[in-house]
Structure formats: structure tokens, C-alpha cells
């Protein structure tokens, strides 16, 4: 994620060879709500855009909250209808830039976003990020400031992470917004810019739910006479992600005001990028590679910074398709699929976001369930799988090795471009979650052998500083 962030999955039609990639939806962490709507682009030559090609997109509407197996409805739309729908979507500051550069635009989280670009297939984009550097538009994510004497305590009410004493200035952490029952409302990245001021990024597909939740909790906070908290949505700010082993070398050519060698994973700083002052640079991302997420203070300056970085010979533009396949290889969650309001951080393999001091205080929403599951274990756990045969997709049922009992369901699955294997993520009954446990997964009405695998599937390469 900026993780974050999550989401509905868009998939470009592809062959089982691994040339296809599912889409992000952020990390991190993409990537959308239980009622998220995703579009799958029908098969088309890489050189033709979604709107210029004579294709019929498929809208896939999933409702994972309806039960252990998400139900999906598919509808078909003409190209004209797709264009009409596209006109109703929000646009990031880079929309015209994407179109001018051959972006295959699709509906995603209420925005018109590039699935891929005519210059490269999703597979090529994926591999370029792993070997050089890819540039992503993540401006659909929701950026917030929480400030005031009560800001830290307020955010610690909503999350189980230690934000006031646990984070240094310009330190960041992945966390989760919890409801009263301990379920995950959204995953988020929180940066403490200074005491009493926090920069928060949440998922586009949860925009309305998150904003309503913040309003409700702020009203209760104020009514209780708690210290003042101001909430601002940074609606004019752009957000881009530069990811890959050459990301630092590329950004170094364009940045002043910060020494990137001192900016380790999870740290951030304000700096000037491509002549634009006031950019917030955070080291991290949703691909598992070294990289940066850059918040830029206005629409016009977002275009200027993006054009400067995209002109570097090491950089290629990358879209949602590559973003999703990269995040799944890195074992990162997609909200609305791997996580939803029924999943606790313990079930979601995110126990590490529940800080030690917060466990002792038990003063966050949903603490009763979270602490109980930490002590006694959850009913199910999020784990990774390697699946033989055709790839397992979301909603596929997981059986025990004998094929006698349903013990879980797949939440995300793709052919891994890096590994050449079919990988997946899913929620499985506690006790069957240990590495190398053999199971069977229902794919195309047949049971296929699979086994639990350690995540990340591809080792992460976050920059921790020079050795």
C-alpha cells in the first residue's frame, strides 16, 4: 500500500502462461470495498487502447461481505456505454497525461485509471519494475492530514498501532482502521510528521465509508470534550509511486533538500522534486521493491514532476495490472478481497500492527476481539498458496488434502510473472495454515493440488540503509 490500499481486482485477459497479470487494486496496498466494481479489459492487441479497440468490457461486481464465498455478477457493456460511464468517473491530475501516453483507461475505485499502456504489456511492465523502475499514478488514493493536540490520541483510538510514542518524526507505519467488533474497515499508512500532525493515506474504494467513519468518530470525540482534532482531505494533492531497483538513482537526479541515502524504508521527508517545492517523499510502496511514494501539492505540479521522472530512460509507466501482480508476489493485501470488515488483523496475518503498548492498554476500538485472538488464536488465517494446474482465482474453495472438507477460500490469485508458478492468497481454517500443508483448491470444477507457502512469494527489497 501506499500501501495501501485495496480494492477490486481488474484483470487483463491472458493465457495461463503467466503473461497475464491481475490488477491492483494497494498496496498498500490498491484495491477496493466489498461492493467494489472492477472492469476487465477483453483481449486486445497491446498497441490498442481500451477506447479505440472494438471491445466489450466486462464489469465484475463482487460482494465479499455476503458470505465466506464472494458472489459476483457480470455485465457486458458496449464501447459507447463504456465511454459514457467513463465520463462520469473522477479523474486524477494525470488523466490527460495517461491518455496522451497510450493509457488503457478503465473504471477503478470511482476513477478513470490506466490498466496498462500501449507501449508495454502488463507482463513487460511487471518485469521492468522488478529490473529497473516503474512509475505509477496512485492519485486516486485519499490523502489526509489530522492535526491538533488530540490528533495522535484520536488516531490511536481508531487503530491498534503505537503512533504517538512509537513513531519518530517523519516515521511511517502500515496500520488498520478497526470497527467496534475488531474488523478491518480499511488498511492505511500513517506518517507522524511531528507531534500533533499526521499524514494518512487510505484506499480510494473506501473513500465514502472512511470519511463517514472519521466524521462519526470526530463528532463523538468532540462531544466527549477531548482535545481538538482537525481533519483535512488533501483533495488537490497528487500522489505517484516510483518503484524498482533503479528508483533511488532516478529520483536522486531530480531531488534536492534531502539525502536519499538517509531516507530508509518507512521514513519520509519534504523536499524539492523536479523544481517543485513541498513534495512529501515517503520511502516504501506496494510492489516489494525499493521505491518512493511522492505526494505533490497541486494538479499542475503533479504533471510537471511526473513528466520529469517519466523522461528518465530507466523509467517506464506502469498501470493497475502490473501493480496488482507485483503486490501479490510481495504478499500484500488488497482491501475488499484479502481484507474486509469481517477480517480481524490477527486473521489477516497483520498481528504485527498491534503494538505491544497498545495491547497492554487495550484502548482501541475492537480491542476485545483482537486481544482474544492474540491469546487463543483466530478461527481462520490469511496465508499464501502455490497451486498446480490452472491458476486459482478469487472465490475458489479450499479443501483439506483428502478433498473431504471445505476449509477456506481463495481471496487473490495469479500466475506469477517472476516465479512462473500459480500463486494465491486465501483465508484458511486455523490449524491448516502452517507452511507446506497440503490442500486442494477447486479450479474449473476440479480439485487441484496446492500447498501453503510462506509470503512474500518474492523476497522484498526494501532499503534499510547501507551495510
UniProtKB/TrEMBL annotation:
Pfam families for the chain: GCV_T, GCV_T_C
Aminomethyltransferase C-terminal domain: from which residue to which, for each copy?
Answer: 380-458
Q: Which GO terms describe its molecular function?
A: aminomethyltransferase activity; transaminase activity
Q: Name one GO cellular component term.
A: glycine cleavage complex
**Gene3D superfamilies annotated for this entry?**
Aminomethyltransferase beta-barrel domains, Aminomethyltransferase fragment, Probable tRNA modification gtpase trme, domain 1
Question: Its Enzyme Commission number?
Answer: 2.1.2.10
Q: Which residue ranges does the record assign to the GCVT N-terminal domain?
A: 94-357
Arranged from A to Z, the UniProt key words for this protein are: Aminotransferase, Mitochondrion, Transferase, Transit peptide
Q: Where found in the cell?
A: Mitochondrion
Residues annotated as binding substrate are 293
Reactions performed catalytically: N(6)-[(R)-S(8)-aminomethyldihydrolipoyl]-L-lysyl-[protein] + (6S)-5,6,7,8-tetrahydrofolate = N(6)-[(R)-dihydrolipoyl]-L-lysyl-[protein] + (6R)-5,10-methylene-5,6,7,8-tetrahydrofolate + NH4(+)
One GO biological process term is:
glycine catabolic process
Q: Which InterPro entries match?
A: GcvT, GcvT/YgfZ/DmdA, GcvT/YgfZ_C, GcvT_C, GCVT_N, TrmE/GcvT-like
Top-tier EC class: transferase
Query: Record's family?
Result: Belongs to the GcvT family.
Q: Note the subunit structure.
A: The glycine cleavage system is composed of four proteins: P, T, L and H.
Q: What does this protein do?
A: The glycine cleavage system catalyzes the degradation of glycine.
Know the name of this protein? Aminomethyltransferase
Which lineage is the organism of this entry classified under, starting from the top rank?
A: Eukaryota, Fungi, Dikarya, Basidiomycota, Ustilaginomycotina
